[in-house]
């Protein structure tokens, strides 16, 4: 149908954390500007993924004992 599949990624690092932001979507060729840019409102089926890595992310994860307690607790 002439639509284009786009994907882009950006890696941000701050305070010992690394965050990867990944964008996927569909764009009509008519929505591509002269500078090879597309407005975010013109991306169909847009999907953003945020993937964090680092010591702060690791500290926020539950330990195995907390996970076991949550599974064993009836309510």
Description:
- This protein has 75 residues and is of the alpha+beta class.
- Helices cover 20% and strands 44% of the residues.
- The protein has 2 helices and 3 strands; from the N terminus they run βββαα.
- It has a 3-stranded antiparallel sheet.
- Strand 1 and strand 2 (17-27) form a beta hairpin.
- The longest helix has 9 residues, at 64-72.
- The radius of gyration is 19 Å and the shape is elongated.
Layout of helices and strands:
Elements: E1 4-14, E2 17-27, E3 44-54, H1 55-60, H2 64-72
Antiparallel strand pairs: 1-2, 2-3
Written as H for each helix and E for each strand, in order along the chain, the element string is EEEHH
Proportion of beta-strand residues? 35-45%
Radius of gyration: 19 Å
Q: Identify the overall geometry.
A: elongated
Summarize the biggest pleated sheet.
Answer: 3 strands, antiparallel
* Overall helicity: 10-25%
What class do helices, strands and sheet pairing give? alpha+beta
Strand order of the largest sheet: 1-2-3
Q: N- to C-terminal separation? A: 51 Å
Number of helices: 2
Q: Mean pLDDT, rounded to whole units?
A: 86
What is the strand tally? 3
Ranges where pLDDT stays below 50 over 5 or more residues in a row are none
């Amino acid at each position: 149908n002439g639509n284009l599949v786009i994907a882009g990624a950006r890696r941000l690092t701050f305070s010992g954390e690394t965050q990867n932001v990944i964008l996927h979507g569909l764009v009509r060729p008519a929505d591509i500007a002269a500078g090879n840019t597309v407005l975010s409102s013109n991306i169909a089926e847009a999907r953003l993924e945020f993937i964090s890595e680092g010591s702060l992310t690791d500290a926020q994860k539950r330990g195995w004992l907390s996970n076991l307690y949550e599974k064993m607790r009836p309510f």
